[in-house]
Amino acid sequence: MIRRFTGWHMTGILVAFFAVVIVVNALMATIAVQSFGGTVVDNSYVESQKFNRYLAQARMQDRLGWQDVMALDADRHVALTLTDAKGVAVAGARIAAVAEHPLGRAPDIQLMFHEAAPGRYVSDVRLPAGRWQVRADIDHGEQHLLQEVF
User: Fold this and answer.
1) CB of 60 closer than 8 Å to CB of 66
2) N or C, where is the chain less crowded by C-beta within 10 Å?
3) Are 64 and 147 in contact (CB under 8 A)?
4) pLDDT tens digit string along 76-119?
5) Which of 125, 134, 139 lies closest to 70 in space, CA to CA?
6) Which residue range is the domain that position 110 belongs to?
7) Cβ(100)–Cβ(135) under 8 Å?
8) Could you tell me which of 109, 102, 105 has the C-alpha nearest to residue 78?
């Protein structure tokens, strides 16, 4: 015997469908809120006004031709190797950096560097396990370089 499809059946299907949609949306919103650690910039309008200055800095850095390689050594210290456009080690630079957790879940770590060998600089602090974004501020006489490494 075939049962008839009634309005109650259709009501049940609609209620079940929208219940699934609401539960999935609530779950996704909860995950999104819990995984976002904070703001990227405090005021996006003010930051946008600095965009042309950032482009000018990037062009100036490109003209310098410096090459840098940043990596973690075996002890989780940040190691930075810095060479000029001709491949000669850049010795005597002052380097300060900030290590930031990409999602803002861990506090920023200030890094100071000492020169272990000509053109090779090592941070004074070890980075904890995890993913870090390092922004280095490099000064060498009149030359200045900002570097961001993920």
Assistant:
1) no
2) N
3) no
4) 999 999 898 898 998 988 998 999 887 767 889 999 999 999 99
5) 134
6) 65-149
7) yes
8) 109
Q: What is the pTM of this model?
A: 0.65
For residues 69 and 12, state if they share a domain.
no
Structure-block tokens of residue 113:
């560097």
The burial of 57, by beta-carbon neighbours within 10 Å (0-12 exposed, 13-18 middle, 19 or more buried), is given as: middle
Question: Largest alpha-carbon pair distance within the chain?
Answer: 92
Q: Are residues 26 and 90 in the same domain?
A: no
Range of weakest confidence among 41-45, 88-92, 120-124: 41-45
Q: Residue 25 is encoded by which pair of tokens?
A: 């949306």
Residues 84 and 134 in one domain: yes
In a domain, residue 116? The reply is: yes
